[in-house]
Amino acid sequence: MNPETMYRATRIPSALGIVDVVLDTDAYNEVDDQYAIAYLLLLKNKFNTIGFTAAPFFNALSTSPEDGMNKSYDEILHILDLMGREDLKSHVYRGSTRWLPDEKTPVESDAARYLVEEARNHSPESPLHIIAIGAITNVASAILMDRSAMVNNTVITWLGGHGFHYSHTGEFNMRQDIPASRVLLDAGVNLTLIPCEGVASELRTTEPELRHWIKGQNALGDYLYEHTVEAAEKKHAGEPWSRVIWDVAAVAALRDRGSCRFVKSRMETTPDLRDDFLYAPNENKHPLRYVFKINRDEIFNELFRLIREMGKEETK
User: How far is CA 194 from the centre of its chain?
Assistant: First the structure.
């Protein structure tokens, strides 16, 4: 392991002050990205959110990766409307329209170019923080477009894959674009990895909880409540349900700053990603920070409180 890389990776969570952040999100894919956007913007004393990039996705909610990206772009704007953040709407960028064709060829987009530009405008001492909660195509493309700037001047937090203790890691964000996932894992970037199943899957909520804490508080709270309940009841058809809101784990991991209040993490050697969605150990690779524990109650307590309080301070 490169000592300087290890040093920088170890120092990431203890960074002090307000840091510049870009959120890369497939916001229309599920109901949890919207919570992550809100959480990030409401932590004004921790983050200076300078932009958003729309990530592609392809499932029953989209007709193609491009369609998923465009729907996500519109959903980001919708959340900004609900939060009264007109100032940020000109800082939302459309991302990749397709997956990486291989591990050497970027898919250029407004989002990828924006990430490269911002990385070049930052430094190792004052890095750009990129929180990614979808397929990593935009970020991987930026790495391929300017590896030096992305490796030296950014800190990336990605919600992708499953826990290292799982039998496979064929999670939605990771498996959609395997070449992009490999680019991220192989480039030597300052990376915090948050697995979905086995770690972030602890972040489950229910209709009664959402009704009690955020419904009726403001337009954002009502939208999150209604959107979550509608999606869950459509899937579970009247059965008891809980809904995972795991994308907020990526915001919480960067917000934690090494306090272990919201997440617990450790240094691990970055594994290789095989074609069959298995991790392969590679002791010759660089380190990453691996989140292995989520404090569900601490995260939701802060998130729900911030949603309830939104706008009240300005009104006073």
Answer: 9
**93 in a domain, yes or no?**
yes
SS3 state at 167:
coil
Report the C-alpha gap between 234 and 171 in whole angstroms: 22
Q: What is the CATH number of the domain that holds 39?
A: 3.90.245.10
Report the sign of the C-alpha dihedral through residues 260, 263, 264, 265, in that order.
negative
164 in any annotated domain? yes
Domain that holds residue 154: 3-203+245-307
Q: Is 228 inside any structural domain?
A: no
Tell how far CA 67 is from the center of its chain. Answer: 20
| Neighbouring C-alpha atoms within 13 Å toward the C-beta of 127 | 25
Average pLDDT over residues 224-242: 92
* Strand segments (E) across the chain: 19-25, 47-54, 92-93, 128-132, 154-159, 190-194, 204-205, 243-244, 263-269, 272-273, 279-280, 287-294
- CA–CA dist 52, 70 (Å, integer): 13
As a whole number of angstroms, the distance between CA 165 and CA 197 comes to: 10
Dihedral sign computed on CA atoms, order 48, 254, 126, 270? negative
Give Cα 65 distance to the centre of its chain: 18
Give residue-wise pLDDT tens across range 166-211. Answer: 888 999 999 999 999 999 999 999 999 999 999 999 999 999 999 9
Q: Is residue 312 part of a domain?
A: no
How many domains does the chain contain in total?
1
Interatomic CA distance for residues 29 and 17, integer angstroms: 32
Can you tell me the distance from the alpha carbon of 24 to that of 128, in angstroms, rounded to the nearest whole number? 13
Measure CA 174 to chain center. 12
pLDDT at position 136 over 50 = yes
Sign of CA dihedral 186, 192, 195, 196: negative
pTM: 0.94
